Amino acid sequence: MPCDILVALAGNPNAGKTTVFNGLTGARQHVGNYPGITVEKKEGTACCDGHEIRIVDLPGTYSLTAFTLEEVVARSVLADERPDVVVDVVNASALERNLYLTVQLLEMGVPVVLALNMMDEARSLGLRIDAEELSRRLGLPVVETVARRGKGLDELLHAAVEDVRARETAPWKPLIISYGPDLDPVLARMEACVNGAALLTSRYQARWTALKFLEGDEEIRSQCRLADLDATRELESMADEVAAHLKTTLGTYPEAVVADYRYGFISSLLRGGVVARSSDTADRLAFSDKLDAVLTQQLLGPLILLGILFLVYQITFVLGAFPMHLVEEGFSLLKTLVEAVLPEGLLRSLVVSGIIDGVGGVMSFVPLIMLIFLQIAVLEDSGYMARIAYMLDRVFRAFGLHGCSVMPFIVGGGIAGGCAVPGVLAARTLRSPREKLATLLTVPFMACGAKLPVFILFVGVFFPSHEALAMFLLTLAGWVTALLVARLLRSTIIRGEPTPFVMELPPYRLPTLRGLLIHTWERTWEYLKKAGTVILAISILLWAAMTFPRPDEKTLAALDVQTAATAGAGDAEGARALAQLRYSLAGRVGQALEPVTRYAGFDWRTDIALLGGFAAKEVIVATLGTAYSLGDPEDEGRLAGRIAVDPQWNKASAMALMLFVLLYAPCMVTLAAIRQETESWGWALFSLGFNTLVAFCVATAAYQVGRLLL
Ligand code: GDP
Ligand code: MG
Question: Hey, what CATH topology would domain 180-276 get?
């Protein structure tokens, strides 16, 4: 059966498009929760009423004006592929805002079927929506769905097919909204001009193109310029004229007037009982407002925020110590077992030093990291995270960032335990390219989950009675550096005007246990998967680099004497192993770097670990584990124990290392994400070099000062 119907899924980010898509096509994909994770065009097929249907998942957008990449992509798919019908997935609990896109789809003149998704949420918020009346007023099919539970999806597909059939006899007409006495006459003249010059008329409705001129859509303008320069100039001068007129008479600009009239249209759609709230919702909103009066109060709010942050670490270390100890014991046991079974030699060294010490080192932090993830889930699900963004907007502005930069920071590890990759992707909500760039480049300074093992390890050894405080200060150090660097970048290489920030605060809600567990598990599973694959592979590679080439007996003997004289390796065996490590490939690179890194207090073994960390930060502890277990074949105690007695480590060098790890180059995956988002290797390489330089300067300063004071 050939595909005879093309359906496009459109909607705001997080309205549930991908969930609908998966439900309709049966394609299994991960459903992320960060705004705009659907960059690529996803396609699938479904069958309904004897038709084979091709379904395209468009990127999530709030608008169809070409301000973001997503908007450009969504729009050009609609114009070029001409889907037979667009299924617009809207979040029923935020109907007013979601319909803004619907109105634009209708104005564009594409046939729309509305999926009122998240009806479960809407109901639990106490919203009652009269879908039938809405359908009548909009003049299009409206289907209620709960995509997450697959409810209403069959009906939705059926309605879409029906609509396509109906189009054969009754072709679709674009929606025409009045934009008031100032814009309507100009719009009519502009429409005539577009029609006269046949500007883009094969792709868009003439009125729509004219509207885009008023909205300041650069993409449309430049396309028109290519097609007909004279007509474009004429349109531009009309647009400029009305803009100047609006400015002098009303003190506003065309884009704002257009948005006002669209919202006016929407609120008249919803009036008269189409959307009604039950009284207990009103109570909840009132309660939320009361809570916000305290939690986001100018002075109290930030103090409470800091307190909560501190509490998160306090809880983590108090509750996490015992399970962490258990996991460590488990791996020790495993090691003893392997040593009993495998004969001494390369294989045993690979399994013990490469795999168990490497991956085990990362795994033992899982209990602590799970606890942090759980608490982040509480903050997110309760609605408090949104308050953080709201409160920090003003602070961020002072540093050349934007309220929308707060979420990327938090997701990237602003409350330790995030990951810079989704953090970088979350920066897509920023409209201004400069603010977005500044955000992208500073998100990697946050204390992501992969850096935590390093912090936990060294804080545990050197600042054992102040664990929570030390972690809290490290997190703050990440924020402070990010903000200062943003200020620096925004006043030098990415200078530009700030843009306004609008945000509505969702009401507080009590998180459900199920939701918390799912969120915690999703994040933990990502972490475990990474430990089992990427980290394992890099651990093995690094083990090889730390083991080969192997010196012959004569060289070893000579090195041995030298090493024993310099490093305080206790016994002959230890000195020998250390000499072998020095002779290996990794050892040589580490030693080549040592003359420089010595200023920050790092010896060559630490350098090896830090190099490994360029691939993934988790590898740092793993590599230290390998480096120190290679140097200690007797294998007394775990890594923490070895570090505690090694003369190389003290409070100052531990502090320098933690700061360096916090700030230095983003890992490879983050670099790839930065490249993708900036569409430039230049910025990715810039952050690699620049962050490492910042990190080195901070670490050196910390070490030199720390040596004098601590
Ligand atoms: P997209 O950004 O539009 O692709 O949205 P997603 O499909 O990724 O969905 C965003 C979030 O909403 C996910 O956590 C989904 O599980 C959730 N979700 C989707 N549909 C529903 C629904 O009908 N009810 C509820 N409660 N949640 C939903
Ligand atoms: Mg999606």
Answer: Helix Hairpins (1.10.287)
